[in-house]
Amino acid sequence: MTYQIADEPVETSLRAYVVRPNVPLLAMMMCGAWLAWPWFAFNAVAMGSPTRRKEIALCVAAVFGTGVLGALVIALDGVGLLPEGIPLRLALLAIVAFKMSFAYYLSTVQSRTFHVYEYYGGPVRPAGRLIMAGSFMTGLVIGLSDHPLWHIIVSGRLW
Amino acid sequence: MEDRQITVLLEQAEVQRRLGNHRGATELAQRALALDPDHAHGHATLALILLDARRLPGAGIEARAALALDGNDPYVHRVAAAVLAAERKLDDAWQHCLVALEEPDAGPAAHVLGAHICALRGDRLHARELLHDALALDANHTEALTDLARLALRDGEHGEAARLVERALETDPGDRDAHVVAGHVALARGDTAAAEQHARFVLGQDATSHGGLHLWAAVQARRSVVLGLWWRFNTWMSQRDDNRRVALLVGAFVVAQIAIIVTDELGFDTATRVLTLLWLGFCAYTWFAPALFRRMVAAALGTVRLDPSF
């Protein structure tokens, strides 16, 4: 019989698929939000993170928030309040910054559990190939719809 | 019988913590708490172990549990102050520290903790006063001497820092923290070889010592300008809490992107290209430098001979 410390991850059957928390963050930069948010959520569950509910809620909030901001930008553009050029590009930059803030924060929150997970010898999977594959698939995912809101929600590259 | 067992387990846990065996210490404290989950001292001991192991979220939960169970125990207040200080909740930490300091039999350890909190609050004068108070209670208190040396080093008083840390090492030649400070003093005086000797000693005693690894990395950073830059940037960032770090990183991104957008829209093509390349370079540098740095430190650590008792 032992005492369970609140920051310890619980055992799951998905431990073999855990990646470092900076991998979904890199996915956000290299591939887009379509891969990053589900990956953050999956990693939280696979790791058995005690804060997984918070992490999943943050992913949902990020998608929802991006949708709201995207709809706002599209609406302002539609009525001519956001002219092409610097104003529109800055508005889109604000959305990317919003997504990056969530991604960095999620990565930070997940890192806390990850350190404990790694401390107890939890396996960690390299993810370079997945990122590479995701990068190639990004065009395909974005092309699934022509609607600008879809593009805003699923993209997220830094360049 | 159970009480006695818990006391023994917690004493053993404390011994293991001091030896740097955080995993063993954690397991012992967990066994004690399995016998009595409402043992305030047990939660406080576990909080201290987790704090040493740099598991701050867990340490915070355990310290708060200890306080909720026994808000009158000065030891619990001391641990809570240490944890809150690590969480950078310095005003709350100071309040708990005051409770520990106001105890009639407050030992030098409470004064040293108070000094640590004052130093974090930027009140180095008060910190020094508290450390002198600790030395008045015990003239050879190694931790107080070491922390005074650390403050002197921060204030640029290298000679005074060297004298104090020498005294600490005379009192306890095996004190790892004193060796770490001695290493940083040597580094500040440009003696990289001596700093490396101190780092080797600490890591030989405890290969997982955070202070030892920090000193070792600082020595390696001194030897490489490119990685040294990253080390300084990383050290500067690590002094900020998580939210501030996120804000700084996203802020840097936004500023760079605004500059790129504006120069692009105004038709300054060369400036746009230069800014884009600079930004990409910064991204690549901050991404690859930590990996390179870790590899370099790991390679160098391969030459450290561990003490047989580790």
Short description:
The complex is a heterodimer of chains A (159) and B (310). Chain A has 159 residues and is mainly α.
List the SSEs and their pairings.
The complex is a heterodimer of chains A (159) and B (310).
Chain A: H1 22-30, H2 33-47, H3 52-78, H4 86-119, H5 128-142, H6 148-154
Chain B: H1 2-19, H2 22-35, H3 40-52, H4 56-69, H5 74-86, H6 90-101, H7 108-120, H8 124-137, H9 142-154, H10 158-171, H11 176-188, H12 192-205, H13 210-223, H14 225-238, H15 242-265, H16 269-301
Helix pairs in contact in B: 1-2, 1-3, 2-3, 3-4, 3-5, 4-5, 5-6, 5-7, 6-7, 7-8, 7-9, 8-9, 9-10, 9-11, 10-11, 11-12, 11-13, 12-13, 13-14, 13-16, 14-16, 15-16
Task: Explain what you see.
The complex is a heterodimer of chains A (159) and B (310). With 159 residues, chain A is an all-alpha fold. Chain A has one domain. Chain A has helices at 22-30, 33-47, 52-78, 86-119, 128-142, 148-154. Chain A is elongated and about 65 Å long. Chain B is built from 16 helices and no strands. Chain B has helices at residues 2-19, 22-35, 40-52, 56-69, 74-86, 90-101, 108-120, 124-137, 142-154, 158-171, 176-188, 192-205, 210-223, 225-238, 242-265, 269-301. The mean pLDDT of chain B is 88. Chain B is globular. Chain B has 310 residues and is mainly alpha-helical. Chain B is 81% helix and 0% strand. The chains are: A mainly alpha (159), B mainly alpha (310).
